[in-house]
Amino acid sequence: MSLRDRLCARIAAQGPISLADYMADCLLHPEFGYYTTGLPIGAAGDFITAPEISQMFGELIGLCLAQAWMDQGSPDRFTLAELGPGRGTLMADLLRATRGVPGFHDAADIFLIEASAPLAAQQRQALADHSVSHKAHVDALPDGPLFVVANEFFDALPIRQFTRAESHWRETQIGAQDGVLTLGLGPELPQPALADRLGDTRAGDVIEYAPFAAPIIDTLGSRIARHGGAGLIIDYGDWHSLGDTFQALQNHQPVDPLAEPGRADLTAHVDFEALAVAAPCPTTRLTPQGVFLERLGITQRAQALAAGLNGTALDRHIAAYRRLTHRDEMGNLFKVIGLFPKDSPPPPGLEI
Ligand code: SAH
């Protein structure tokens, strides 16, 4: 029985399901989920991410977190965590770049939050020289100083999507007809959680909200507020959700999100405002990825690496630098928000 057959049977039994339920099954179903069964990232997969484009990305994230750790007096035990580490490339680059920071590696307990067994295995391989602990959920992170990065993690969290009617909302739902999944709108209902969005939307407007995002930020932020640390959340998205951003990617191309459940990457843009509102610690200004990386010195790092390259390797390196930073590529679409404790400076590259 395929995941589509299972979804159709479930819908026949209980009626249409929310987009969040659909996404959760498609991405993380233990037997058929996109992340739980496949190896989606990289040229041979469905999408490519910043750490896979250039080693400079993970290196600069590493130096940023190490500087934040030093700015807070170099606590002698801390958790170094990554949410959704993919192939483990970012963490490997981060650890290589911070080898020379006195005491940083000795003080770090490395935790990887990962729901996918095949990806966790890849991460263990990429980080074979380090001792790392895998956990499925942020609640399992130790209760102490926390320095954490999440790149393209929040966009993979299930969303609920609502279309504004007059003073109520209609939720996007997945139905089924003759074995084919269909998108539709549920009945008009009040949504107390969206009361504050009645003021800035009009009938027909679409808004999205990721129910698991706020509890995750609350867990990270409360550790940072209580014990110190820093968080870097990097993703595509914007401030204040408006519009339909639900999308599916397969082989680097947009596809119909209902066509092959479990076979395509399903994502939505991240509403950074919702993350900032949920954080129980100070947050930085939302900053374009290109600006953040420039402030951390990516141009100098790119020049240093370029000095050892020529021919196609040099061309590829220059293209990667441009892709990460240029505002027509990832530089502006991707944004960064930082979490940090009261009475400490924000992480380098970010401001209040
Ligand atoms: N950060 C990586 C990978 C991004 S893809 C990179 O930049 O290359 C999203 C990652 O988050 C994958 O590792 C996926 O398995 C993981 N993931 C998605 N949803 C998750 C969840 N609910 N809990 C834990 N991990 C999740």
Can you characterise this structure?
The protein contains 14 helices and 16 strands. By secondary structure, the protein is α/β, with parallel strands linked by helices. It has a domain of 214 residues: Vaccinia Virus protein VP39 (Rossmann fold). The model has no long low-confidence stretch (mean pLDDT 96).
CATH topology of the domain at 34-159 and 209-289 and 333-339: Rossmann fold
For the largest beta-sheet, the strand count, sense and barrel status come to: 8 strands, mixed
Q: Give the low-confidence spans.
A: none
Mean pLDDT over all positions:
96
| CATH class label of the domain at 34-159 and 209-289 and 333-339 | Alpha Beta
Bound molecules: S-adenosyl-L-homocysteine
Q: What gyration radius follows from the Cα positions, in whole Å?
A: 21 Å
CATH architecture of the domain at 34-159 and 209-289 and 333-339: 3-Layer(aba) Sandwich
Q: Name the structural class.
A: alpha/beta
What's the CATH H-level superfamily name of the domain at 34-159 and 209-289 and 333-339?
A: Vaccinia Virus protein VP39
- How large a portion of the residues is in β-strands, by DSSP E? 15-25%
Terminal-residue CA separation? 52 Å
Taken in chain order, the helices and strands follow as HEHHHHEHHEHEEEEEEHEEEEEHEHHHHE
Figure out the total of helices: 14
Give me a quick take on this structure.
The protein is of the alpha/beta class.
SSE inventory with pairings:
Blueprint: H1 3-14, E1 17-18, H2 19-28, H3 34-37, H4 50-53, H5 55-71, E2 78-83, H6 89-97, H7 104-107, E3 108-113, H8 117-126, E4 132-135, E5 146-151, E6 160-164, E7 169-177, E8 180-189, E9 206-209, H9 213-227, E10 229-238, E11 247-250, E12 253-255, E13 265-267, E14 270-271, H10 272-278, E15 287-288, H11 289-295, H12 298-306, H13 311-325, H14 330-333, E16 334-339
Parallel strand pairs: 2-3, 2-5, 3-4, 5-10, 10-14
Antiparallel strand pairs: 1-7, 6-7, 6-9, 7-8, 10-16, 11-12, 11-13, 15-16
Helix pairs in contact: 5-6, 9-10, 12-13
The protein binds S-adenosyl-L-homocysteine.
